[in-house]
Every structure is written in C-alpha cells, then in structure tokens.
Amino acid sequence: MLRRIPDPASQSTTPIHFYCSSGGNAGLACAHAARSLSYPCTVVVPLTTPALMLAKIRAAGATSVIQEGASWVEADTHMRETLMPEAEGKGEKVVYVPPFDDPDIWEGHSSMVDEIHDDLGRLVLEERSGKTDPDAVLCGVGGGGLLCGVVRGLDRHGWGDVPVIALETFGTDSLNQALRKGELKAPTLPAITSRATCLGARTVCKQAFDDGQRENVKSVVLEDAEAAMGCWRLADDERLMVELACGVNVALCYDGRLEKYLGRDLAKDDKVVVIVCGGSNITVEELASYRQEYAYIEKSMPKDADVPSSVSAPNGTHG
User: Fold this and answer.
1) I need a labelling partner for 223 at 20 to 30 A (CA). Which of 128, 135, 168, 300 fits?
2) What is the pLDDT of residues 303-318, one digit of tens each?
C-alpha cells in the first residue's frame, strides 16, 4: 500500500481511497493499514462473511464495508466494475489492494520465512545441535498469495527443497482441482461449499498454480470436520483460537496425517512449521459448536494421555 501512495514531492492533491475485496482477513489487514496511513478504505466482502468479521473490519478502521455476491469473485467484480469507477468519477484516486494476486503481497508474506530462518537459527544455537532448515512447512491456500510468499521466502534462504504442504478444505479446493485437471481455468469451482469461507477463492492466482506444480509442494484437501478438530485441539493444546481456514493446517498434526502426506515418519527433533493465521473469524461459542457437531471425528483417533486435547476430546474418553 505504501508503494501506491504518491511521492510527497509530487504535491498531488487528489484524495486517495484504498479498495480491497476479501473473504475477511485481507480486508481486515487493509483496513488496519489504511488507518495507520490515515487514508480511507472500502472493503467489499461476500454475503457469506459473518457479522463478527464485518464488525471487526469496521473497528479496524474501514470507511465502508459492503457485502456483495455469493463468493469473493462476485464481491471483487462488483468492487472493480462498479464501486471503483464510481469513485473515480467523483475525483478520487482509487487504489486497488488485491487480497492475494500481486508480487507485493507475496513479498510481504515471504518475510515470514525470514523470521522463521532467524528463529530456527537461534534454536539451533541454544540446543547446540540440529539443522537450521525446517523439515516441512504447512500452509493454507485460499487465493494462493500466502503459498506464493512462502515459496519465495524458502527459495531466498536456499530452502527450495523443503516440503510445503498446501492445505484446503473440500469445497474451497480450487488449487487441488486445478492441479488435478492440469489447467487453470476460471472459475475452477462452481461455488464455495465449505464452511472455511476465508479460503473461498473459486480460482487461485496463476502464480499459485505454477508454484503448486513444484516438486516440493504437495496439495492436500481435508474435510471441514478435520479442520474443526484442528481448531478445538489447538485451543486445548496451545490456548490459541483460530478459524477453520487455519484449523485445517493444524489438523494435519494429529493422528498420523502429517506422516501420511509427507510419506515418511517424523523424528522427535524434526522441525515442522505450521503457519497459524486466521484467528479473527472465531468465537468461543462457534468453537464449542464445532466440537458438538463434529465430535464423531475423534472416535477413530487414538487416545494419548500426554496430549491435553486427546484427554479433553469431545465425548470424553473415546470409549
């Protein structure tokens, strides 16, 4: 967003207005950044975005929050084809802030890997053993911006062969379906049918499709029930609350799922990076409803007295 602001030396007096379409989280980030820069911001989200997220975007500083369409693509189309031209007609300098398909977005996400590199380096120094590179990175995929950033960050640090597991839920699995078909054609999905609506891009960006074909990237799709299990287990094990779009990453850490998709056993000292993002669209009540609705998934999982979330699992003791 900083790169889209005119140089003060230009002495431009045209008012700037940021516009962002989003399933929720990107709009929240845009609103926060726009307020920090003292510029107005309009966020357009689909009709599936819950009232809680709308309130959070407003509280973050959005000038206007508008709902339009069944999914992100309809919201984005309405914003770019209707709202932005109208604003330009009124004399505003309109700045489009894409939620995932832009090199600046990828570059921003890639800085996360810089931090991971530093953290792992310090960890190795403290333990006086081990290697600095991670054994795997788990990353959620909506439109694909985060995946693009992770891949670029790994390449920058010489970690281009580190396995990346790109996770989606059934009903938001636009990357997986495009890879299976061997082509990127919009829309990949006819509709978003998963409850993980923050992953709800019916087509991923081309760069994500290209990155998804790399040897070290594996596309994995889980059920909503598994994503929900990841949410309540993370809450019990780490005292962190996240939404389904993030819970799908965490779910892979339980019941041998990660080893299955990596194709090998993990050692005790292996370092797996789980990107935990998307904690805005969740409440205590919703988390509790997930446990009630999807409790059946725990019945087939082994009990482990050393894992808090196993002891506190729905239905008590797996008995």
Assistant:
1) 135
2) 777 677 777 777 644 4
